[in-house]
Every structure is written in structure tokens, then in C-alpha cells.
Specification:
By secondary structure, the chain is mainly alpha-helical. It contains six helices and two strands; from the N terminus they run αααβαβαα.
Length: 189
């Protein structure tokens, strides 16, 4: 049995419908304005579907979609690494200081020791340098991991595109001309 994908089946249905509408429009001596407008909309929708199919069929779109999904998951991993692993290590060196809740109050009343979240909810204008510092650390970690990933991919590509081994040329010995010249010279003696 012939299997047809859902998208192809949808395109076939649109083609049949468009052909039917065209046929009906040709049969009528004076098609109504409503019929002409619906035919125009149908043709426009069909054209849009063709363009969408061509757009989706490009390989770069699928690669980009996979990259975005993997990137979102990767960001969650890096955030957890910074929050759960790196911040405590930085806290050890800075005497237990947690940078995520470090801020300066620009305007508003905030009690000392209030968390960053509570200060924001209180409506105070704050300068959250700790959050910025953590964002910078996140950036450097992501940049380093992406660098390592690109480096690895380039290494794999270079191994895959390894040129054919060049076999060193073995001296083939004297050519026919060299042999004839040698014979001529030996006969002259």
C-alpha cells in the first residue's frame, strides 16, 4: 500500500480543492464576487503552504531548531553549575559571601539583610551587582564550553576530511632515454 505523509496528503487535498474551485469558476459565466474572493484566498493559502514547505525543507532550519532546543537545555545546566557548584566555591574564598544577593539600594527603604528578591518586590530601585557578576560568570562558562565544543567539532571534521596518504615516489631507475645515452657513450669508448 502506498504511504503518503500527512503534509503531502494536505497538499494534495489543497491542490484538488483549488482545481475544483478553478473548474467551478470557469463553468460560471459570471462568478460571484464572494466566490472570486474565496478562490483568491484559497490560492494565496496554497502559495503560502508551498513557500512554507520549501522553507522547512531547507536543512539549516532543522539544524537551527535542534540547536535552539539543545542550547536551552544547556543554559539550564550551566545555571545549575554556577548556582550550585561555583557560587559555593567562590563563597569559600570570599568568606561565605553569596554574590547573588549582593546589591546596593539606589532609592527606597529596604532593611539591611533583605534578600534581592524581597527588595525588588518592595519596589526599591536597586543596583544588583551580584546578579550581574553571576551573569558574567555564566557567560564565561558558556563561552568556554562552546569554544571547547567548536574545537572538538573542528578536530572531528579535520579527521574526517583527512587527505589521502601521499606515497613517496620510489626512484624508478633510469628512463629509456638515459639507457640509450649510456649505451651510446659506452660504444664511443
Amino acid at each position: 500500500m502506498l504511504r503518503v505523509s500527512g503534509f503531502k496528503l494536505l497538499l494534495l487535498q489543497f491542490k484538488k480543492t483549488a482545481a475544483h474551485v478553478r473548474h467551478c469558476a470557469m463553468q460560471c459565466a459570471e462568478p460571484s464576487l464572494a466566490g472570486a474572493a474565496s478562490f483568491s484566498k484559497l490560492c494565496g493559502a496554497f502559495q503560502m503552504l508551498k513557500e512554507f514547505k520549501a522553507f522547512i525543507a531547507k536543512g539549516n532550519v532543522m539544524d537551527m531548531a535542534v540547536g535552539i532546543i539543545v542550547g536551552a537545555a544547556f543554559t539550564a545546566i550551566v545555571k545549575s553549575m554556577v548556582d550550585d557548584l561555583i557560587n559555593p566555591i567562590i563563597g569559600i574564598f570570599t568568606g561565605g559571601l553569596d554574590f547573588t544577593n549582593r546589591y546596593a539600594v539606589i532609592s527606597g527603604d529596604v532593611a539591611a539583610g533583605t534578600s534581592l528578591e524581597a527588595a525588588r518586590e518592595a519596589g526599591a530601585s536597586i543596583f544588583a551587582y551580584g546578579s550581574f557578576f553571576m551573569a558574567v560568570i555564566n557567560f564565561f562558562i558558556i563561552a568556554f564550553v562552546v569554544f571547547m565544543l567548536v574545537r572538538y567539532v573542528n578536530k572531528v571534521k579535520s579527521l574526517a576530511e583527512k587527505p589521502e596518504e601521499v606515497v613517496p615516489e620510489v626512484p624508478a631507475g633510469p628512463s629509456e632515454l638515459d639507457v640509450l645515452i649510456e649505451i651510446r657513450d659506452s660504444l664511443k669508448k
